Amino acid sequence: MKTKIGISAGALAALTFLLALWVGYVPVILVVGYVFIAEKNEWLKTTVAKALVLALCFSILRFFLGAIPNVLDCLNSMIRIFSAESTINYGKFSEIISFIRNVVSIVEDVVFLLLALFALKMNTIKIGFVDKFVAKHLISDAE
Questions:
Q1: Which of 75, 57, 12, 46 lies closest to 141 in space, CA to CA?
Q2: Are 32 and 16 in contact, with CB atoms under 8 Å apart?
Q3: pLDDT surpasses 80 at 143
Q4: d(CA 46, CA 16)
Q5: What is the end-to-end Cα distance of the chain in Å, rounded?
Q6: How many CB atoms lie within 10 A of CB 90?
Q7: What are phi and psi of 8, to 5 degrees?
Q8: For residue 8, pLDDT beyond 90
Q9: How far apart are the C-alpha atoms of 140 and 38, rounded to whole Å?
Q10: Could you tell me if residue 41 is left (phi over 0), alpha (psi between -120 and 50 degrees) or otherwise beta?
């Protein structure tokens, strides 16, 4: 099925996943907005919304993983105010967080690339909580 801009729905969906992975939110939001305003294909709407929601989920996860070392640094600063010799040693914990962040980054790359490849064939990979969120909050039943 072709979109109004002349490319297939699968190609536009795949492009949205790749934009989410490599470019950022502004182009993804523009594509999602275009699809929701101009296109009638429900699969395409669901898929581009899924790309945006999944990108947001990965960003939130990276935010929380990055916040943990910041909180520990803040605690260390507060402790040093009262005692110059006392600090919390969290070196190994910081390395574990860094490792987890690297794993999340690799998983994000793999998931978005697989979703882009599946989208070219107008197929998808089910991601439970993301699909449920999109179905519940972003897709309208009345059209």
A1: 46
A2: yes
A3: no
A4: 12
A5: 19
A6: 16
A7: -70, 155
A8: yes
A9: 14
A10: beta
Q: How many C-beta neighbours within 10 Å does residue 10 have?
A: 20
The 3 state secondary structure assigned to the chain is: CECCCCCEHHHHHHHHHHHHHHCCHHHHHHHHHHHHHHCCCHHHHHHHHHHHHHHHHHHHHHHHHHHHHHHHHHHHHHHHHHCCCCCCCCHHHHHHHHHHHHHHHHHHHHHHHHHHHHHHCCCCCCCHHHHHHHHHHHCCCCC
Residue type, 42: E
What would the pLDDT profile of 35-77 be if each residue is shown by its tens digit?
A: 999 999 999 999 999 999 999 999 999 999 999 888 888 888 8
pTM (predicted TM-score):
0.85
Mean pLDDT value of segment 103-118: 97
